[in-house]
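Hi R.,

As promised, here are both runs. First protein below:
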Amino acid sequence: MQYADEAHAFRLRRSGARGPRNWDELQMVRAQHRQETVSVAPATEELAGDVPVRIITPADAPCGVLLDIHSGGFYMGAASDNDVRNRALADRLGVAVVSVDYRLAPEHPWPAAPDDCETVAKWLAESAEARFGTGRLVIGGVSAGATLTMTTLLRLRDRGIDAFAGAVLQYGTFDLSAQTPAGRLIADEYFLEAYVGGTSDRSVPDISPIYAELAGLPKVLMVVGSCDVLLEDNLAMAGRLSAAGVDVDLRVYPESPHGFTLHPTAMAHAALDDIHGWIVDCLGQGSDLRSPASDQRARAARNGGMSPT
């Protein structure tokens, strides 16, 4: 809570932020994004099956592999957007990070993106030991990436693949049908039309995971802000996961809007520390990895001695 005032002030400064509302605006935002995005963290580019991926590895042999699914409303973004964060993650936790360059809507509407994510997930399940020297796998995504993480896990489960030890879901969209109270809050968003196009039934679990049978999934960490328009959607998904017997850890951060873990705030750093610690525990390598709690204490000392709760 000691970070809430700063998070509140940052949120108010960004109160007018919104996504593209039509195809023309999307094109403009994409062009601006390409101009502003410069990767300074070299990554290896490969094909996982026929899907391009970017791979960042630690200096030493990785103790696990994180499958990263980038954000962008299904219609923006690229794997390279996460290079800097993924390099920091690899160096800090000693994991290899594989980021999926899935096809974007509306040029490639559903099911193109989940097809690509499933292809890479299956490739990792089959090849991680040989490619990285470890079979310890976790998966995670932000916003649309969290949605695609859920659809990927459901597809793998239905194919009898349980290679992933856990999943990190950061403020995903789980009802794209606009039929639940939570879903109706975003019913007029353009990304829905772009992603699912003219699909007649948007409540199919491969589009809206909130409607899926959720039993048999690996443990899940859910991260969302108290001021996120998707808060209710995330609460509903957490409830359904728990009811299905899934080990779910839900963490709601005060005064935080959608996308808050990408912000330059103490609240974002605290949430990322929590995520990193959870990944360490999930991989079962706590004794071999740098403790996120030690980083929290060091940062708190720099900020006047307060340690995050």
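And here is the second one, sequence first, then its structure tokens:
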Amino acid sequence: MIMEDLRKATRVPFSAPIEQILIYDSGSPKLGNTAVFNARTLDISLSGISFETKTKIDPASMVYFIFSVPTVEGNRRIGCDGYVAFSKSKGTNCIAGIHFVDITQEDSEVINTFIESHR
């Protein structure tokens, strides 16, 4: 069974930069060189987001990340906690998926509206 078969939520293509990813260490985000920049999203669902980056991220890591979703009113900036559900190498890059852990209802509704408009 492939990873896509295990997903419960509908994913749609979504290409946008992730502004910041901070990897948690003992309950608080690490700062400095552990912040991942130049990550780009690949797809999004109500339960998570996948992305590609040059930095390896270990599965099961807890992270805080910030990204923006386009809306009718403009871009909506979303910051939330999540855990790395999967991480795999693709050439010199890393493809990873983050499962949302702590996302507001309002942000979830913004993501749902985006998904519904891109099905």
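A quick note on the second one: Confidence is low (pLDDT under 50) at residues 1-5. Let me know what you think.

Best,
J.
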